[in-house]
Known about the structure:
Helix content: 25-40%
Strand content: 15-25%
Amino acid sequence: MRAVCYDVPRGVPEVREVGVPECPPDGVLVRVHATGLCRSDWHGWMGHDPDIRFPHVPGHEFAGTVHTVGADVTGWTAGDRVTTPFVNACGSCGPCAAGQHQVCAAQTQPGFSHWGSFAEYVVVRHAAVNLVRLPDGLDHVTAAGLGCRFATSYRAIAQVGEVRDGEWVVVHGCGGVGLAAVMVAAARGARVIAVDVSATALDLAASIGASHTLDAGAGPVAAQVLALTGGGADVTVDAIGRASVIADSLASLRIQGRHLQVGLLVGPDARPPTDLGDVMYRELRVLGSHGMAAHRYPAMLDDIAAGRLDPARLVTRTISLDEAPAALASFASAPPTGTTVIVL
Length: 344
């Protein structure tokens, strides 16, 4: 099969002919039709993930059709249209038994713990708990963006943060995760303040529901949020993964407000402050949210089918597999606005 591959961290990624992965007895082999290019793929290429073994094929957001069904799998057949969360659960550990597959103690992740979806074929292990059947009306390109960024934001906003009608929500970072958070929060009736340094990203945030936008480079963000909201936000979201953003988020909250940590904390500005005095005094809640289990997808898919959410609006660019290596390597220097999807 053709796949994007690199041999060492920061090594030149290139499209190669490599062997097709073997289908495990409890899993399926999926023919990839579309796969999202995510900042997490760039982090993996940069060497920020110790689980990656080389040579490596990245990619963890994808949609396609079942090609091969493992000997122990029931309920799925070749040709079924599917996607999967980026966290592939084992289905049998303690968290899985409690239905919390997104924090599975033995989780695997395509594109990190094993070869991913920047390829013609990708393995999904433990198919019984990880495969999601795609509705007929949902195309592969749109579905490819659901597995990481959109589903992560959906669960964070709707199920972890429990954002309600009329609440003030501040979203820091209008990349893929942040824009999805803006859309989901606005669809739930929240008044959303989008924060970023990119005018293009802020324009897109405004077009999908943000009622206010703030340039993070134009002055103290917390002070502007306090002035706009008249006393503080109900919910803040760090969709970037920076200690400075967490500090701004906590300072922007009203008494008993909720902070949602969604961004991946890596790099030089990744260590949040350890002084939790303000969290205690003002009874703030700091909530982590890591993906969404396959069995929680129906509510999101229902919202999409009903037109309450339109993730297709977040797909701003489609590219070929041959264009993917350059796009991956340039992610930090030329980050795309919205979601880029590789079409195979």
